[in-house]
Amino acid sequence: MALDFRQDPSSVRSAVLLVVLLVLSLVLITGYAREGSTGPLHNVQGTVSSVFTPAKVLSGMLSGAEQSTSDMVSNAQANEDTLTALRTTNEELRQRVAQMEEYYQEAQRLQELLGVKDQYAMEGVTCRVISRSTDSWNQVLTIDGGTDDGVRAGLPVIGGSGLVGQVISASATKADVRLLQDRQTGVAAMIQSSRAEGILVGSLDGLLYLEDVSSDVSVSTGDVVITSGLGGGYYRGIMIGTVVKVDGSQGDENRKIIVEPNASASPLEEVMVVTGMNSSGLAEPSDPSGSTTSKSSSR
């Protein structure tokens, strides 16, 4: 087989160019090494560096911006975590404040009961209201005190500002209390100023009516109504309420006397079942010196 030793002209040119570039590089390196810092090759290097400096600066700026963005994201995450922790702490504080407010209000209510107890020289059992009837025909509360605590049927029940009702039944640990507003309620009562006696009854409309008061007795709005102690159902001299309206005039056999109870039934949370009373309360007569004469109250 015959061999072809001819070469491509483009390959020859490439080889020659490579040799020339290598020789030129050696010459430039040798000259750069031998010349001083102010030589022409050093000057060319400075010019080229200055041309590419803006690119380096831009690259640095981009790199810095990327780092700043990363820091901002990290800081934002940290701030969100801090805000979450603050929100949690704030909610806990709100709950504690609400709880303290409940304790404060309960303490105030119990203090009012204690004040009534001291005012009337009463003995009794403080109980919580655990339920109330929604039936308009029966105004009844259930309390968490029972026979184990000395609570029994027939005992009067007071709130922070006056009579509330009467215990109608009791088990070992709880009892039912019929409120004054119940239509089945009947309380022997009297008007404090005139000493006129009558029977206080409840009604379906939630009002209290003072009945069987002599028509000869003058009755006005603002008159205070208290228990008379007759019949043995309630201790004598306990505050019931105030006359708010009189339909009819003195001498009218059909006049209606409407009484607003001093202790509202709806917000009741604690009550006291009265087991004993060592005075006649608001029914005690005054002596000439202006003070009241204490004596044991009967039912």
> What is the spatial order of strands in the main beta sheet?
1-2-5-4-3-12
The secondary-structure class comes to: alpha+beta
Tertiary shape: rod-shaped
CA distance, first residue to last residue: 148 Å
The main sheet comes to: 6 strands, antiparallel, barrel
The helix count comes to: 2
Percent in helix: 25-40%
Order of helices and strands: HHEEEEEEEEEEEE
Poorly predicted regions are 1-6, 287-296
Determine the mean pLDDT: 77
Please outline what is shown here.
The protein is α+β, with helices and mostly antiparallel strands and 299 residues long. The chain contains two helices and twelve strands.
Compile the SSE list and pairings.
Elements lengths: L8 H26 L5 H80 L2 E11 L7 E4 L12 E4 L2 E9 L4 E5 L6 E6 L5 E5 L6 E4 L12 E4 L11 E9 L8 E6 L8 E8 L22
Antiparallel strand pairs: 1-2, 1-12, 2-5, 3-4, 3-12, 4-5, 6-7, 6-9, 7-8, 8-11, 9-10, 10-11
Descriptive key words:
alpha+beta, six-stranded antiparallel β-barrel, disordered N terminus, six-stranded antiparallel beta barrel, 299 residues, 35% helix, 2 helices
